Structure formats: structure tokens, C-alpha cells
TrEMBL record:
Keywords: DNA-binding, Sigma factor, Transcription, Transcription regulation. One of its GO terms (biological process) is DNA-templated transcription initiation. PANTHER family: ECF RNA POLYMERASE SIGMA FACTOR SIGL, RNA POLYMERASE ECF-TYPE SIGMA FACTO. Signal peptide: none annotated. It holds the Pfam family Sigma70_r2. It comes from the Bacteria. SUPFAM superfamilies: Sigma2 domain of RNA polymerase sigma factors, Sigma3 and sigma4 domains of RNA polymerase sigma factors. Residues 11-77, 108-156 form the RNA polymerase sigma-70 region domain. The lineage of its organism: Bacteria, Bacillati, Actinomycetota, Actinomycetes, Micrococcales. Belongs to the sigma-70 factor family. ECF subfamily. GO terms for molecular function: DNA binding; sigma factor activity. This is Putative RNA polymerase ECF-type sigma factor.
Length: 166
């Protein structure tokens, strides 16, 4: 299959910065991050006709799998340095999964209306009570409750569309 440079360039243009930031936050090695992003884009490019749902979600899951595969390969080789950041493969997988979940949730939240996003952030991230959120957002408590209900419902739909398993 010949390389479709326009498609690869479009993937990089639309998702490259966020994907690199995600990989870099897990690897902390800029050269390794660049390699993983490049491998991710090429793998996804090969699968592009079969990708359903969110391209970004698919890219991030592919990058996650590549990072875990690389980590497992590194564990089979003799240790190159004395200190390692992560001693346990389960810990590495968990850290990458946590990062992936954070990125996917941020993407999903950005797809919500600002009113719904503000209520969810106030209640679930800032841990405000309904009354505190009402004061902070300058809306009645009943409106906070109503928006929270519909925001969670909309968020579930968005996560389903993105192919995120709950």
C-alpha cells in the first residue's frame, strides 16, 4: 500500500501535537515520544479505512499499546541503567491507562456545551456541593442539578461515540 502523504500529513496536523503531549507525559523522553508518535500515525494510517468512531481515540489507544509493548520489550532486555522509573509492568500499564483516560475525558468534556461542562467540572473536579456550584456559576441549585443530569447523559453518549469503554 503506497504511503498517502496527504492523509499522514492530515493526521499529524490534526492530532500530532496532542498525541505527542500524551506520549511525552508517559515517556518523558522526547526522542522516544517522536518515535512512538511516528509509529502510531503509520499504524493508524494502515488501518484508516477500518477506523470507526473517533480518530483521536483510536490514535491514543494505539499509542498506549505501542508504549506498553515497548515497555515489555525493555523489561526482557538487560537493564541499561541502575535506576528505573517504574519497576512493575502493571504499574506502567496503569500509568499509561490513567493518562489515556484523562486525555479521552478531556476530549469528551470539550465536546459538551459550556453550560454542561461548567457544571460537571464544578461538581466532579472541583468537588463543589450543589449549593457551592450554584453560587460559583451564578445559577439556581435546581438548574445545577438539571444540567448535571443532562451533562452526564450527554457525556455518556459522547464517550460511546468515541468508543471508550466504561
Amino acid at each position: 500500500m503506497p504511503l498517502d502523504e496527504d492523509l499522514v500529513a492530515a493526521i499529524y496536523r490534526e492530532h500530532g501535537t496532542a498525541l505527542r503531549r500524551f506520549v511525552l507525559s508517559a515517556s518523558r523522553d522526547p526522542h522516544l515520544a517522536d518515535d512512538i508518535v511516528q509509529e502510531t500515525v503509520l499504524r493508524v494510517w494502515q488501518q484508516a479505512p477500518m477506523v470507526t468512531g473517533s480518530m483521536r481515540s483510536y490514535l491514543f489507544r494505539t499509542a498506549r499499546n505501542i508504549m506498553i509493548d515497548n515497555y515489555r520489550k525493555a523489561q526482557r532486555r538487560p537493564q541499561e541503567t541502575e535506576d528505573r522509573d517504574i519497576a512493575d509492568p502493571e504499574e506502567a500499564t496503569g500509568r499509561v491507562d490513567d493518562l489515556l483516560n484523562k486525555v479521552l475525558m478531556e476530549e469528551a468534556l470539550l465536546r459538551l456545551s459550556s453550560e454542561h461542562r461548567d457544571v460537571l467540572v464544578a461538581l466532579h473536579y472541583r468537588r463543589f456541593t450543589v449549593g457551592e456550584a450554584a453560587v460559583q456559576l451564578n445559577i439556581p441549585s435546581g438548574t445545577v442539578k438539571s444540567r448535571a443530569f443532562y451533562a452526564v447523559k450527554a457525556l455518556r453518549t459522547i464517550l460511546d461515540e468515541m468508543g471508550v469503554e466504561r
